[in-house]
Q: What sequence folds into this?
């Protein structure tokens, strides 16, 4: 009886041992599966976190590229090609990072491309910044040159103005001035002899006699003298085709002659025959030469 009980007890103990081993194996398997699952979850979280970081990095690089374009610089062909290549690479990286799953190999390749892109954009922006500084320098030089040209132009204009004023003063100073202007009325006889008269009814011509005030600045050369005669009513007696310029305006003249000025006391005479009868009153005359007034005089015919 005792032996039988011992045999039963040994069998129960064996069963208990077997159950313990099975339970331990199950626990070990579950622990292995749990650890493996945690590792996979950690790897998945790590890949997703890195993907998010890379996406943010790519967006930052794109923003830096956009900031360089806000400078509104005219880029060289090479810089334009480089920028276009960078934007294409950014678009490819964005598309790659937006995929649902990424392997570790994909992630490693993306990390390398982002580093290269970061370095490229940094160099690209340095070139653009240098280009901006060069443009600023050139603009400063251009503005300085414009200012210099403007200053020189102003000086030139002022000099031309002063020269014009000086020339005007010289011309005025060199202009001939008539002295001792005397008007005499004559009657012309059939024999051609001139008889001085004072009556309008008998007068046929006016003779204007004058000398020239000595002037060292005046040209010792031929000068054209223009004569303007006004009747007692104030009308200019002139042919409308006879035009000249003096005192800054164009006007008509009655008669003209050329005199040879030599700087001495030579007396000059201008004769004018009236094609119409004289009327009673005061006749006035004005003499001009070289664009300026020479002198004035008047005569009264009774």
A:
């Amino acid at each position: 009886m005792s032996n039988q009980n011992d045999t039963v007890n040994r069998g129960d103990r064996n069963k208990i041992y077997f159950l313990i081993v099975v339970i331990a194996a199950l626990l070990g398997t579950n622990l292995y599966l749990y650890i493996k699952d945690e590792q996979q979850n950690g790897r998945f979280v790590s890949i997703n976190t890195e993907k998010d970081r890379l996406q943010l990095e790519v967006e930052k690089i794109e923003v830096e590229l956009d900031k360089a374009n806000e400078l509104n610089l005219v880029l060289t062909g090479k810089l334009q090609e480089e920028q276009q290549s960078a934007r294409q690479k950014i678009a490819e990286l964005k598309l790659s990072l937006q995929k649902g799953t990424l392997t570790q190999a994909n992630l490693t390749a993306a990390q390398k491309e982002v580093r290269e892109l970061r370095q490229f954009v940094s160099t690209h922006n340095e070139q653009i910044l240098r280009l901006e500084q060069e443009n600023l320098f050139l603009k400063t030089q251009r503005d300085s040159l414009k200012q210099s040209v403007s200053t020189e132009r102003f000086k030139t204009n002022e000099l031309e103005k002063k020269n014009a004023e000086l020339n005007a003063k010289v011309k005025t100073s060199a202009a001939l001035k008539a002295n001792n202007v005397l008007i005499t009325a004559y009657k012309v006889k059939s024999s051609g002899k001139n008889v001085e008269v004072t009556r309008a009814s008998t007068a046929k011509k006016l003779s204007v006699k004058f000398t020239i005030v000595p002037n060292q600045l005046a040209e010792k050369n031929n000068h054209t003298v223009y004569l303007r005669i006004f009747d007692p009513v104030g009308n200019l007696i002139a042919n409308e085709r006879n035009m000249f310029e003096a005192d800054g305006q164009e006007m008509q003249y009655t008669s003209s002659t050329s005199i040879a000025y030599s700087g001495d006391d030579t007396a000059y005479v201008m004769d004018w025959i009236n094609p119409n009868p004289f009327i009673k009153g005061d006749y006035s005359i004005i003499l001009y030469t070289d664009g300026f007034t020479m002198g004035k005089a008047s005569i009264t015919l009774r």
